[in-house]
Amino acid sequence: MFYYVLKYVVLGPLLRVLFRPRIEGLENIPEEGAAIVAGNHLSFSDHFLMPAILKRRITFLAKAEYFTGPGIKGRLTAFFFRSAGQIPVDRSGKDAGQAAIREGLGVLGKGELLGIYPEGTRSHDGRLYKGKVGVAVMAITARVPVIPCAMVGTFEIQPPGQVVPKIKRVTIRFGEPLDFSRYAGMENQKAAIRAVTDEIMYAILELSGQEYVDEYAAKVKAAEQGAAPPKKFRGLRR
């Protein structure tokens, strides 16, 4: 219930007024049935803007830290994410990937929309990074389409570390559904799931116009924090 109050009464209308999102390709989201919406992840605002413009409910796999923060702020954040139907996933430990896949398949098994950021974390510099293969495993196993999505402009309104977003118009693009039925039964084959993941990331890249980096975002971020500071973001490549 609280999800729909947020979407249609409180947060959804407010976000539409403040950010006036341009929405492209919304007809590519199926009206019913299970599907994965796989997008780039540039800002904390992404968590709210995409669900606000979709007609259907979408469930994201959210990092567990959003549910375990200390103090009043932590409790409010946890309440918000739980009320919005988001699922906490512990990203630490060797079984983290399997836990995320298990939770995601549970959502898809109920015929719902599942939202995924294949990069695994927010981009720290606005570029698009190599996707993790969990999205491919879920798509092949559940035999559902993947709709690529690009958030454009959200890095500029709220880059990492900025608490209050700037009020500026953003664009949300949805591409045509990707069908991976030809890979049926191959969810345990490394070459197959890598190929599917790369196809998804390329589709996101085509929609977003970002610069692509063939490395995992977390690895690059860690390396830059341990060495020189990251280069200043110069905007999206057109």
Automatic annotation (TrEMBL):
State the InterPro entries in the record.
Plipid/glycerol_acylTrfase
Entry keyword set: Acyltransferase, Transferase
Q: Which region is the signal sequence?
A: none
Q: Which PANTHER family match?
A: 1-ACYL-SN-GLYCEROL-3-PHOSPHATE ACYLTRANSFERASE
One Pfam family named in its UniProt record: Acyltransferase
From which domain of life does this come? Bacteria
Q: Which residues form the Phospholipid/glycerol acyltransferase domain?
A: 35-154
Q: Which SUPFAM superfamilies match?
A: Glycerol-3-phosphate (1)-acyltransferase
Has keyword Electron transport?
Answer: no
Entry annotated with the keyword Magnesium: no
Recorded GO terms, molecular function?
acyltransferase activity
Give the protein's recorded name. 1-acyl-sn-glycerol-3-phosphate acyltransferase
Species assigned in the record: Streptomyces rhizosphaericola
